[in-house]
Structures are given as C-alpha cells and as structure tokens.
Structures
1.
Amino acid sequence: MAVGGFIKLPGGTVVVALGLPHPACPELAVRVVVHAVNRQRALTRLSNLGFRGARLTGNAEPPTPDEVSAVLHHPDGLVWREYGALGTDPWYPISTLKRLSHHA
C-alpha cells in the first residue's frame, strides 16, 4: 500500500506523502510525510528507516496543506500519523514510530 503523492515547493524542494504499512503492525497503515531535496531523496530517507518497499507511482494522494505545514515545521522534516486520521489529530516525529516498532 504505497499510495501517495508529492508537491514541489517554490524553493525547488519537494514534500512527499505516502501511505505505508505500520512497521510494528502491518495490518495498520500510517501516512508518512517527508521534506527533501527531490523525490528520490525522500524515498531514500524512507528506505534508510526500514520502509524498503516505499515507491511513489503517480500522484493520487498529494500532501495536503496541513501535511506540508507539519513537515516544514518539524526539524527532521519527517513526520507520521495513522492513515486516515482526522485533520485535528497530531503529527509525530518518525523516531516515535521506530520506537513503537521495536517494542512490538
């Protein structure tokens, strides 16, 4: 389930958003949002975190303004929350997702 999309920002960087299986519980999905120099670098960052199957095919679900704002205001430029979460649900740093997967 790698449904997602991207947008190119005025400065030339991109924000990529993907729906991926939760590392600790593959039946659940998470929406991961990455800010990077280009799409390939964003996917490389995800791959380096253990999301080996992360691929962006098409632009079916580009990042929303909320997702862009969340990732641009996070120091790591990489946030997540449950797939299909409400707009008022919080965004989390990727380190919390990695921590959850180690405790499962």
2.
Amino acid sequence: MQELPSTVDAAALLARLRGWARELGFSQIAVADVDLSSAEPGLQAWLDAGHHGRMHYMAAHGLKRARPAELVPGTLRVVTARMDYLPRDTAPGWQAVEWAGLATPEQAQISIYARGRDYHKVLRQRLQKLAEQLQAEVGPLGYRVFTDSAPVLEVELAARSGLGWRGKHTLTLHREAGSMFFLGEIFVDLALPLTEPVSGHCGECRACIDVCPTAAITAPYRVDARRCISYLTIEHDGPIPEALRPALGNRVYGCDDCQLACPWNKFAQPAVLADFDARPGMAGTSIAALLAWDEAEFLRRTEGSAIRRIGFMRWRRNLAVAAGNALRVRDDAALRAALQRAGQGSDALVAEHIAWALSAPRSAGALSSGTPSVGAFE
C-alpha cells in the first residue's frame, strides 16, 4: 500500500483535489474503496437474465467490473467525479421544453447529453489533468482514468463515495443536482481518505418507472437494456424490434424520459463548460432535414460528438423509425419524399426500416409525450 507522505495532511489534500477539480469544470469529487464484493451478486443476476442485450462485452468482462484492483492491479482507491452537462443557456422549466419536443412528431429528439461535444473526450482529458496535478503534489503515482470506457461499476462507486445515491432508474441522483451529470473515475494506488456515502431519497416515488416508454425499468433499480430506448438507438446494431418501434416516438438518439420525470431534476445545474452547449442541428431540427444529410454531412456534423460512434447506417435507421411514427400521426408528403430519397442505395438494415416507415398506417391520434401504454409491450 502506498501511504500518503507523512508531511501531507489528508484532509487538506482532498480539499486541494476538489479545488483543482472545480477549476477543471467538475462539479464534485469523492473517494471510494475498491471492495465492491457486495455488488457482485446483483451484477451476476443482471447478466444471467440477459438484460445486457447484445452488449457482449458486459458478459465478457463479467465480475471484473466489480473488482477495480483486478482491472488495474495495485489500485487502492477510486477518485470519483461528476460533471454537470445541461447546456449553459438552459433556463428554468427546461423539462417542459423537452416534453414539448417529444410531443412534436416531425421534430427529431436527441438526448440532451449528446447535443454537444463527446463527453468521453471532455472528461477523460480533464481527469488526466487532475491526476497529473495530484501526482505533482504527492510524487510518483500509479493511476488510470476512465469515463464510461471500461468495465467499471460507475454508479456503484459514485454511490459508495457519496456523489449521490442510485435512483430507481439506476442513474446516480444528487439532492442539489438531480441526475444530469456525467461520471468519471481515477484509479489510484494511493490510500486517499475515503468519503462517506449519502442516504437515498427516492422514497415511494416511481415517476421514472411509470414514464418509461417501453417499460424497460422492470423493477426499482433494475433496467432491461433490451427494452431501453437508449440501448436500442445507440448500442443495438440490428433491426429495432417492430413491437417497440412505436414507443421510440421521435427519439433518434437516446432517451431522457426517466430523467425528465424525476422530481430531483428540478435542481439540475447547467454546465460550466461550453463543450456541452448544443451544436447546430442537434436540437429542434426536423426529421426530414436530418434525413437529407448524406454520410459526408453526417460525419462533418458529428465530428467530436458522441453521436458519430453509432455510424451513418444506425443514424438513418433511427431516423426512419421516427419518421414512420410521425407519419402515423399525420401524413406529410415532404417527409415521405425524404424517406424515399434516403432509401435509394441504402443497405438492407436501413431499407427495411424505411419500408416500415412508409407503410406504417396513419393514426387519428397524436403523440403526447411519445409514451404508449406499458401494457402494449407486456
């Protein structure tokens, strides 16, 4: 074990670490132990149930995700960090704006976190700088930085270190910041002082469970990724199951519904970094306009964005589903024409979804929040 130098005051060091973190744009810093053995049964049960879907890397890593010292030998502590990501110009009542967007069928809805720069890049670079500052303070240090990029139980570490508690939607919640933030970690071989966990404050609330369009939150603190719109539009690389397509509404990348419904997000804070400001075309843009992008335009518009990782074909697949749902609400000749143009020369995956969209029967009803009856998917 690498102990802190005798000349270093542990509490003062942690205070300095938090100060450096704030200068780098982080909202909070804490420290967790590496013993996550009590989380292993729940992780194994989730994998055994197949709730990870086609994310085969989850099963491949298995329980390593709950063993930080196995992932990075020598790790003694995990410095946990969170960074708020609401765009800087976010105004009070932003949830109502998002619900209105979901109720506008012809408008493409992109998850808030993905409208700016790729958070992987932003957090990783800043965590690296934070680790370097720590090393400059204490001397030689073994460390590795992560943000949603390795087999790490991020929410578990965040909860154990006191960044917040695990909400019923499985995301981290904070009393003064809701859940609209990213998590990141620095694995270190230094025995930093541990910070205390906080108690949970979800109580009897089940707003996130009830609002989920596909009933993906199968029980409090349990999500079946195979039904989750974020998984279906981002991680899933095959056809989106037909029974679930109507539930996607106009969501073309990710889903924020469980967070929009959470009462704690009335306290969500805007980011301090410009990186998470929405880029042109990523908010309030019509599905037809996005279907008009060719692959070169898609790559140009998504350079440095988390969206690029799904690739052009999945992007168009998602747009086709959203277009089909919009056409169910009211017919739109321009949208049909955009679909037909996008279908020319497309691969089999995109062509199948465009055919589905163009053949979708129209409905006399209108989308409200895009949330269907849960019973439709039982």
3.
Amino acid sequence: MAFADNLKALPPVAHLAALELTNAVGDVVARIENKPGQAGSLAVYAALAAKHGAINAAAAAEGLEIYAEHTADALAHPGKHPNIDRLIGITAPAQALGVRLIRA
C-alpha cells in the first residue's frame, strides 16, 4: 500500500501540537510538529509510540513499512526525509527513543 493509504489507517492526531523524541537520558533530540509537511510523520510516530511504548527497533521496522514508497526514496537520498532516516538508524535497543506527546 502507498503511504497515503497507510496514513488513513492511523489514529487522528488533531489533538496533538507536536511530539518530542528523547534519548536515553531524556534530552530532546527531535521535535515533530502538527503542521504541513510534518503532520504525516506526527501520525506515524504517535501511532508507533502508542503501540510500542517507544521508538525502538520493532517500531522503526513497522514505521518503515508505513512510510512505504517514501522509505525507498529515503534510502536512495539520505537526508531528504529526516524522520525516515531516524527510523533507518534505529537497529539496537540502546538506540530507542522515548516519546513525549505535546497536546494542542
């Protein structure tokens, strides 16, 4: 399925202003906001966090499937899709990211 189709199957995120990704010591390493160009990634990361409790290797693998055709583009063009690149880089438990939801 295409990313647009996968996105329709995810829970809505209208109640969120953003989410923050944190490293093992709680430092914020990234922020995904509910705005054009990021709302899809917000939905993906929020759904993964709800299901997996964090963005760990299992969540990352699932996220790459959700991103569908954009994953192939990210692999071909590193840096073009930073939210996908982040998932590609999570392969070990020590790389897991915590998630803080910021309500609207």
4.
Amino acid sequence: MKKTAPRKATPSSLVVLEQESAWTRAELDEVVTELREHHERLTTSVGEAEAELAGLMRDAGDGAGHDQADVGASSFERDHELTVLAKEREMLVQLERALARIDDGTYGVCESCGNPIGKNRLMAVPHATLCMSCKQREERR
C-alpha cells in the first residue's frame, strides 16, 4: 500500500469564528513567519541561558570561603536563571505545537472545548491554544 504525505492545511481549511472572514494565505504566512522568528530568537536565548547557567553552576563550588551574602546572591541568581530557562523552554514547545497545528489543520481549534479560538486572537497571540472563554476560565482557577 502506498503511503501518502500528510496533507498540508490550506488557509481556508482552518476554522474561524462566525463573524470572521476565512484565513488568507498572506495572514497565515504572517503568523507562520512570526512563530518561526520567535522560535529562532528563543532558541538562541535558551542556548545563551544554558551556557550562563552552566557557568553559574561551575562557579558555585561548595561555597567555602565565600561570604554568606555572596552565596545567597549566587543562589538567587541561579534560581532566577532556572526559572527563566524553564519558561523559555515551555514557550518553545508552545511555538512548535502551533506550527504543527497549522500543518495538520487543527490550528485555531480550542484544545479545551473544540470551538474556534478566533482569528483575531491568534493574530495577536499566535501560539494560543484556548478560546477566550476557556482561557478566562483557566485564569480564574
């Protein structure tokens, strides 16, 4: 049996809210470009943060001979870098998921309720996975 390549979604096959016009190729290309550029910037940023964090970990040593305040400041900086790095890695995953959803034709469908997210929302937040109602409900929790 012959395998067929995955069908690339067309702009008009993506869902939109009733009052919105269908996606145009230019609009979708703009979103894809924005997602890819953001992904590229974050990939660079994550690489730099990982290198900086490796330096902080290497310089931390056992703390012997260091002033207690310096050790605390170093620990705080290391924790901050770890938090920032984790958030950037999570954003990379979200960007990759958005690009995959564009490819498979599910971009614009709320992952919670299955309703359209809305083209205007996606143009503002291209990696959004929830419609406004579900996002508001999530933020109230």
